[in-house]
Amino acid sequence: MSARPTSRLGDALAQVGACGLFLLQVLGAVPKSLRHFRETIRQIWFVGAMSLVIIMTCGLFVGAVLGLQLYDVLSRFGASAMSGTVVALALYRELGPVVTALLFAGRAGTSITAEIGLMRATDQLAAMEMMAVDPLAYVAAPRFIAGVVALPLLACVFNAMAILGAHAVCVSWLGLDGGTFWSNMTASVDVWTDVVNGVWKSVAFGAVCTLIATFNGYTTAPTSEGVAYATTRTVVFSSIATLALDFVMTAFLT
Amino acid sequence: MSHANPPERADALVEVRGLSTVLNGKTIFDRLDLDIPRGRIVAIMGPSGTGKTTLLRHITGQLRPDAGEIRVDGHDVPTLPRDALFALREKIGYLFQNSALLTDYSVFENVAFPLRQHLRLPEEIVRNVVLTKLQAVGLRGAAGLMPHELSGGMARRVALARAIVRDPMLILYDEPFVGLDPIALNQILKLIRTLNDTLGITSILVAHEFDAVARAADEVYLIAGGKVAAHGTPAELARGESAWTKQFFGGEADGPVPFQYPARDYAADLGFPERTR
Q1: Cβ–Cβ under 8 Å, residues B25 and B222
Q2: I need a labelling partner for A158 at 20 to 30 A (CA). Which of A80, A85, A125, B113 fits?
Q3: Is B12-91+168-269 a domain of CATH 2.60.40.1920?
Q4: For the segment A64-112, what is each residue's pLDDT rounded down to a tens digit?
Q5: According to CATH, where is 3.40.50.300 located in chain B?
Q6: Is the distance from CB of B70 to CB of B19 less than 8 angstroms?
Q7: Which residues of chain B have a CB within 8 Å of the CB of A130?
Q8: What pLDDT score does B162 carry?
Q9: CB distance A124–B62 less than 8 Å?
Q10: Cα separation of B167 and B133, whole Å?
Q11: What is the pLDDT, as a whole number, of residue A11?
């Protein structure tokens, strides 16, 4: 029997509600999770440091492509000197936080969901409960904190690598003057409205992506198929939530 | 010997009264009453799917019943708030049917986990306690292995060491004998008895192996059809004359417990015209 659209909508809303309640539970468990501080550090290392290679590589290429495209387009108007500025603004305000969040959902979000889902399927979460260890405080909260801490840092690294990529293309390859590239950029980029607002965005994306990943793992059906579905859902919902939230935050922050 | 309502006993560590549970439309317990006396080893036996694991989950507050009272050490488990439930669980050891070891931690760290989480002990004491418990289950030499390197029987013994590491007042064993070779089985039986004799730990044992149960348990509850079908010492149950005990301990297909899961007519299922009886 196929589900009726109305009941599907109801299911989706119920999921959103359950996810919201889960967020409250996780936030409630954050103070207790500070007792497991080493676990939090381990998770920051796992979702943050272990994602560095993919973030740095992708940042370099995104920056290089941006530099190439913008140099080409801007030179038609005789404004190629502004390449660095436009690259930096696009990165700090939008591309840095958003692309990092999408990569993060694929690299770290999936592994969080699969790991917690497998813990659910093999009764490890139940075993923790039976040993009077709250899995919300020991498993969910440290991963949530790790995501909120790691994503802004990763986004900064992504931005830095992308600027270097753009510099390599515009200055080293296409022959734009290096001094022009940097001075135009520093003159037009504002720390508060451009850089810091981008960091706020990535803090929010970090919270949303890890919340979705943790929630999907926590509520997975205890089967192989269940874990597979949960992992897919994490990527799909994280991507949608990131892009939708980006629009909302941009509307409010600018 | 067989009675549905055991008399009140002042020394019961676990008291179950009027327990009723319906899971997925199937009645698991129908006003079940039973007592687990302090310091005794009580076995829960019964046909597959009769709710033995569900009963353990009720006793430990992992699952709330639809009706009834479950008192553990004087606390009504279904109504306990989370903090109080966790405080109670610190005094309970639980051996999961599938061992449920934490797969990212070594054998040593799995056994040390409850100590590290709840007590601030010097590393030397943690090490000594963990090695003592691992020695008791014969796996001190395996302390450095990871759970995926263990066989099913070894994982079960590690899980047992973890369940007893804090010397709890109550241990629940869910199928502890599955996958054990005769040597390990013998040692684990001795260990369960020793824990009971020396530390006075109360044990609830869910198992199917009657010979093993008869050697370890003081009392046996046979649960079938959502109620206590028989209760007594293993010897009493083995001699039991009721239809339940005769079928269960004789291992016969015919009797009050159907071997077949409820199904429609066999012939009709195979595509033959339905028989008229």
Answers
A1: no
A2: A80
A3: no
A4: 999 999 999 999 998 989 999 999 999 999 999 999 999 999 999 999 9
A5: 12-91+168-269
A6: yes
A7: 60, 62, 89, 92, 94, 96
A8: 94
A9: no
A10: 10
A11: 87
